[in-house]
Each structure stands twice: as C-alpha cells, then as structure tokens.
Design goal:
heterodimer, A: 144 residues, alpha/beta, four-stranded parallel β-sheet, 5 helices, B: 658 residues, Rossmann fold, FAD/NAD(P)-binding domain, 4 domains, 34 strands
C-alpha cells in the first residue's frame, strides 16, 4: 500500500432525502472527507445491484447507499424495494467474494446534514483501515 | 458526435476559494467531446445565463454541463436558459461542486480534484443523455372533497367560487362534522352553529357544489387531472329528492335510539335527521334499530310519508365520477374513553368527555343548554377538567399533543361558570399550550377573571364517594396530593385519526403515519399536498388542529386545486420509464414493484387482430420517475429516461477510479 493512498468511495443516493441531506451538510459547512463522490438517482429503488458490482470492478474501495428513512420515501415505497434488494444483494455479493464491510447502507433524511457528514467520515475511516480493494479490478484485468 | 460545453462557476468566492476553477475547466477541456470549457464568476446571473445561451448557439452544443451549486437550486434556471437557446432542457446537467465539494472540503488540492471528477461524471452522462419531452396530460375540471366537516366545507366553497364544480362527499347522513356539535368556540366565544350553519347552507345552495352524504369512497383509479372515483352510496331508505323534510316520519317513529350526534346523552328515532340544521335536511333509516329491518314490523314511516319517499328496499348503489383533483379532509375521532379505567369513564355516569360536555351546555343539546349532570340531572357545582387524557402519554397512549384541549378546556371552564356563577372549575394540566392569536389572553381570562383554578399535575384516579365523585391527583407545583370532591368530571380525551382512514389512504395511494394521520409531501413547504400528485390534504386528517388552522388549510388546498385545474393541460417532467417492447417478456416484475400502479400489460396483436403476446406498458401520466421498475427487470427492457442504465454506468465509469 502506498503511503499517500486515499480510498475511493462512491455513494448512490436518492434525490429527495440523502442528496438534499448532503446539500444541507454543504450549506451548513460541515466538513467531511473528500473521498466520497455522489451519484444521484431519483430513488434508492432505482439502484441496481449491478451498479455496486460494476463500481467495485471499476476500482472503488467502498460503496455507500443511502435514501429516505422507511415511510418517508418520496415515492412511498421505493426505499422498501431498495432494502429488499439490498438483502438479496448481500447474498449475491458475499457469494462473489466481496467483503460486505465495504458496503454501507443507511437512511439519511434531508434534514440530517450532520448525519451525512459523519456517515461519510465513518465510512472513509473504515475503508482506510480495510485498505485498497483489488480483487475485482484484478478480475477485470484478467478478462481483458 | 457529441459537442459538450462545460461552464465552471466561481460562485463569487464560494467555489473559487477552495476549487481551482481555471485548472478544473482546463482539465475538463481535454475530455473527448468537450468543445468548450470555460469559467465564469456568477453563471446564474443574467450575463452568466446569456454566456451559456450564446455558447449553445455559437458552438452548436449538443449537451451542457454547468458546474456550480446543487441542481436542487439552479437546475430549473439553467434548463430554462438552455431551452431558450434551442437546446432540449434535459441535455443540460449540473455538477454539484459547491454544496457537495467547495463548502465541505478545506484543502484546495483535494477539492479541485473532486470537482474535476464530479464534472467529468456529468460530462460522460450528458454525452449519453437523450432529449426528453415533457408529458402533457389533459385535465378534468372537477374536484372531489372527501369529508364534509368545516374543513371540507371551506375547501368546497373556495374551489366552487373559482368556478370549478365540486363533489362534497360525507359518510355521515349530514355535513357539518364535529364543529356542528360544539357550543361556543375559543377564543371569541362565538356560537359554533351560528358561524357554521350559514356555510352549510351556502354549500347546499351553491350551483357548482354537489353534496353526496351517507356515502364513502369505494375506489380510485387514474392519476393527477384524470381520477376516476367510485362512490358507494349507502342505502338511506329515503328518497332525498321526493322527501320534503316535513318530519312526520320521525315524529311517528316508535323506536328510540341513543343519539350519536348527542354523544350518547340524548335520544333520536330509528328514522332521523342527526340534528335540526342537518344538510341535507332529509332523514335516514338506521337499519340496525328500525323495526322493519330487525323484525319486519311497523313500517309506519312509509305509511305516514306524504310524498311516498320512504323505500325500505333501497340497496347501496355505486356511482362513478371523474375528477381532476381531490382534497382529503376526513377530520378526526376522539379516543375511546373505555381505555381509561382509572378515570372511571363508563363506570360513573358523571365522568364525561369534553365533547359530551359541549352537548350538555349547548342550547341545541339534549337539555337545551340547561347544565345537568347525567346521573341525576342535578346542576353540578364543582367540575374537574382533566387535560391530556391519552395525549402526551407515549407509554400508554399517544405521544403527540392534541393541540386544542388546552384552549377548549379554558373555554369550557368559562361556559360552566356562565351557567353556574358560583361554581368551582378545577383544571388538571401538564402544560398550558396557548400559542395562537389571542389564545394566551383567553387562557389568562379563564384563570384570572373567570375563576378557573389550574392545578399542575396528573389525576391518578377518580372514584365515587356517596353521591360525589372524588378526584385524586398530584399538584406538582406545591408537591402535594390533591383530593377534590366533584359533581362532574370532564376528560379532554386525545384526538386520533378516524376509523377507516388507513383503508381510505390505501385506496387513494397516499401516505399515513403510525397514528393514522395522513402525511404531507413536505412538512414545511408542501403542507397541504400529499405525496401523490393531485391529492391534497387539509385539517385534522393531518394531525390535531383547531378550526382556524383547519379552515386556512382548506383554503390552501383549494388554492392548490384551482392552480392545478386552471390549465386545460398539465405538463409533467419527462423523466418517466419506457419499455423496450421487443425484449419485454411480460414477467410483470415491474408491474408489481411500481408504487403508483403506472405499469400494466398491453396486448400486441397481429393485423388480423389475434393476440400475439403481451408487453409492459407505462402510463406516463401516472409514472413519477422513481425508477424502481428498472432494476427489477430481468431482461433490461424497462428504463428510466433521464436516469438510464447507460447514463448511470457512464457516471460510474467516469469516476476515474482505476
């Protein structure tokens, strides 16, 4: 591991709660680690398990998924679908050999700017401890 | 070949202080397909927008990325500018380098690199974006108001006064709701009936308002602007068009039944109007008590009716209506007092609810306003009012505050003292909440000028001692036990969501919380909208509130309805799901996961009209663009426009992770 290694983390968030929560963290100037980059989807229900697999394949060291709290979904039940899919996805990813420690699933509302900031920091710290993730990128290279 | 223009905003120093915007725009310029990459101090300003518009024209751009603040802030601004320059607005994306970059990071190096990555992601996405068209849907210019209490009445009147026809649906035999049961109202002590009944009459006489009472919503189909509702009209057994409301039937009816309107304190007949000012002032037959229905005897009402309006063989009917918008104003119920054994409700006749007390002092009540206690008709000298009965009690009942009890209890102490000048009114309270116009002054008037004695603490039990009730409780201000001999005990029971509200919410496809109160789309900024477009909420259906708040919300919801129905066509976001029919296997996964019932199966037929196969079909009017369907499709045949798989994978790929 290089000394200056910084983890690369992708966050898949919903537009209505967590993206707005991340905006609130900005408006409130809560500082957090720069490692997490956000991909906005309309709803956590839109997040395909294959996105996560693909993200690791492309070299991510960690993935965050976050959306509205249960019963707060802008689309009523998209987050329940996401949660169901996540349970299925855990089984799939475990089978694929992904360390589930590298995936964080959470609820973060539009009013929880501070929660978003601390979530990012916690996840970044965790991934830093785990070190770089090469299993999937290696796999990708082998295929080529 | 894509021709992408990238505009990096300084936002004064908001972005430029932590992000090297020049370096960012220079780096982005090297991405294939980017034909223009520049920076500007304030892109959202008029000259900034002109810069974007001019560049779209000059460079013949096929896509634009504006790297600045959150899209939640200025996406509409820049998309509008793009459209003015002739670019499809959905070909413009924003990279959020302020809220999610410059404002949250300190080190310029890191922030600049992150900003570059974020912009790169959006460049790759916008390269794959497709022009989308907003969906246009026609509108039915008619509204349905569910609930005929004061909230529903106000909403119906406001909508109708804007020239839009309204159906006012009420499940009880008359409109009027709880407000028609009240005696006088805080903080002005004006008579509830006197201010409500003129509104009821106005509704009844309004040419654009159709009142449907004794009926409930059976089902709802359709979507904003185009709802199809089925209404179940319960069998009234009285033809309300033929009936003149003369009253002969209920005078002759031999069966006496406990009156719901009088809160069990008075009697009505088996054929009855709930209260004298009822609208419509037409009777209804109570099948559970009418002798004709219970034992096939009597039938005197049918015989005496001068217009032959009584029909025992009436059956419930279902009528269908088309409306463009719905206001849900279903109000509240009071909590069942049988849950309060310690207060002796049900055991002692002289322990009553606050709503019963309203009837006891009301001039139109069972005693015509002469205050008598239920057990022996004696005029009570000492009345104990107990507040927060079931409210603010998370361990046993409801955690929320019922909001109006502090005020109506203060009012009831005054009403009592106006009837019994030398009477003693005691109030047990936890806190006094009187935050409304003239509310605090009103409570002070009750305690300082009208003699109500406030005791801070809870009542532990109520029991009988001879003829009197004894109320035992704590006074937490003097830290002592209190024992009060009372003639009457009034419980301010919690307001709760009405029976059947969850079933109604499910039929309407709107959200409700753990207590059954309906959920607004946003607690602050969309207080009268539900999460389903075209369905609005008002009054106690949302949570406990008083008459002024309910009426204001009714007018708010009515304004929303009129805004919606003022156009002949609705335009909605082009972010909707579409089906690739050639690969769809009609497995119906998407149909099952769609939270809005927007997806159904469509037949594909050959030229002879024979069914070949079925495929999923999205109703763009119903689709809200959540995208839950997309990952559920095993053959990748349904995709969310604006957030397609291709676009999102492009974002992931562009993260420069390797």
């Amino acid at each position: 591991m290089q000394d200056n290694w910084e983890p690369k983390i992708i966050a898949f968030v919903c537009n209505w709660c967590t993206y707005a929560g991340a905006d609130l963290a900005g408006t409130s100037r809560f500082k957090y680690a720069h490692n997490v980059k956000v991909i906005k989807t309309p709803c956590t229900g839109r997040i395909d398990p294959m996105f996560i697999v693909h993200t690791f394949e492309k070299g991510a060291d960690g993935v965050m998924i976050s959306g509205c709290h249960p019963n707060d979904c802008h689309y009523n039940e998209g987050n329940f679908n996401a949660r169901r899919k996540y349970i299925m996805m855990r089984a799939l990813l475990t089978q694929l050999g992904v360390d589930m420690e590298r995936i964080t699933f959470s609820w973060c509302s539009a009013s929880e700017g501070i929660k978003f900031a601390s979530l990012v920091n916690e996840v970044t710290e965790k991934i830093k401890k785990l070190g770089p993730y090469k299993d999937f990128t290696q796999l990708n290279q082998d295929e080529r | 070949m894509a021709r992408i223009g990238v505009f990096v905003c300084w936002c004064g120093s908001n972005i430029a202080e932590t992000v090297d915007v020049v370096k960012a725009s220079e780096t982005i310029a090297k991405i294939p397909g980017v034909v223009l990459s520049t920076d500007y101090k304030y892109l959202c300003s008029d000259p900034g927008q002109d810069l974007v518009k001019q560049a779209i024209k000059d460079h013949n751009l096929t896509g634009v990325v504006v790297a600045s603040c959150s899209p939640r802030m200025h996406e509409p601004t820049f998309r509008k500018a793009a459209a003015q320059a002739g670019l499809n607005p959905y070909m413009l994306e924003m990279a959020n380098i302020r809220e999610q970059c410059s404002w949250v990071h300190d080190k310029k190096e890191d922030a600049t690199q992150k900003a570059i990555d974020l912009i790169r992601m959006m460049v790759e996405k916008v390269k794959r974006n497709k022009p989308l068209q907003n969906v246009k849907i026609p509108v039915t210019k008619k509204a349905l108001v569910i609930g005929g209490g004061v909230t529903g009445i106000q909403a119906a009147l406001d909508i109708a006064s804007g020239g839009i026809p309204v159906i006012l649906l009420e499940r009880e035999p008359s409109i009027g709701g709880h407000m028609s049961m009240l005696d006088e109202t805080f903080p002005t002590l004006d008579c509830s009936q006197c201010i409500l009944t003129p509104k009821m009459v106005e509704v009844a006489q309004h040419p654009l308002i159709q009142i449907i009472t004794y009926s409930e919503l059976e089902s709802l189909e359709g979507f904003v602007g185009n709802f199809k509702v089925k209404i179940r009209k319960k069998a009234r057994h009285v033809d309300i068009d033929a009936c003149t409301g003369c009253g002969t039937c209920w005078q002759k009816c031999p069966t006496k039944v406990t009156s719901e309107f009088e809160q069990g304190l008075g009697k009505r007949k088996a054929i009855y109007i709930p209260f004298p000012q009822a609208i419509p002032s037409r009777p209804v037959i109570d099948e559970d008590h009418c002798l004709k229905f219970t034992s096939n005897r009597c039938g005197i009402c049918e015989k005496v009716c001068p217009t032959k309006a009584v029909h025992f063989d009436d059956q419930p009917v279902i009528i269908e209506e088309e409306v463009g918008a719905i206001v849900v104003a279903t109000g509240y119920d009071l909590m069942k007092t049988s849950d309060f054994g310690e207060y002796g409700y049900g055991k002692y006749k002289d322990v009553v609810t606050s709503l019963q007390f309203e009837r006891m002092v009301c001039a139109s009540g069972p005693t015509l306003g002469d205050l008598q206690r239920p057990s022996d008709g004696k005029k009570p000298k000492t009345v104990v009012f107990v507040k927060c009965v079931g409210s603010r009690d998370p361990e046993h009942h409801y955690p929320y505050c019922s909001k109006i009890c502090c005020m109506y209890t203060a009012k009831q102490t005054m009403l009592f003292r106006h009837k019994v000048h030398d009477g003693n009114a005691y109030v047990f309270y936890i806190d006094i909440r009187s935050n409304g116009k003239n509310y605090e002054e009103f409570v002070r008037r009750a305690s300082e000028h009208e003699g109500a004695q406030y005791i801070r603490g809870r009542v532990s039990m109520v029991y009988q001692d001879g003829e009197d009730l004894v109320v035992e409780g704590a006074d937490t201000l003097t830290n002592s036990q209190v024992k009060i001999k009372a003639d009457l005990v009034v419980l301010a029971t919690a307001m709760k969501s009405p029976e059947g509200i969850k079933e109604l919410a499910q039929k309407l496809g709107i959200g409700y919380d753990q207590h059954g109160f309906l959920t607004e789309a946003h607690p602050k900024l969309k207080p009268v909208e539900s999460s389903t477009a075209g369905i609005f909420l008002a009054g106690c259906a949302l949570s406990p509130r008083d008459i002024p708040d309910s009426v204001s919300e009714a007018s708010g919801a009515a304004a929303k309805v009129m805004g919606l129905l003022s156009k002949s066509e609705l335009e909605k976001d082009g972010v909707v799901a579409t089906v690739r029919e050639c690969s769809c296997t009609a497995c119906q996964n998407c149909v099952k996961v769609c939270p809005f019932g927007a997806i159904s199966l469509k037949d594909i037929k050959d030229r002879q009209g024979n069914l070949i196969r079925q495929v999923a079909n999205v109703n763009p009017g119903l689709c809200t663009g959540c995208g839950t369907c997309t990952p559920s499709c095993p053959s990748r045949s349904i995709d969310l426009q604006g957030f397609t798989d291709e676009e999102l994978y492009a974002e992931i790929n562009a993260m420069a992770l390797l």
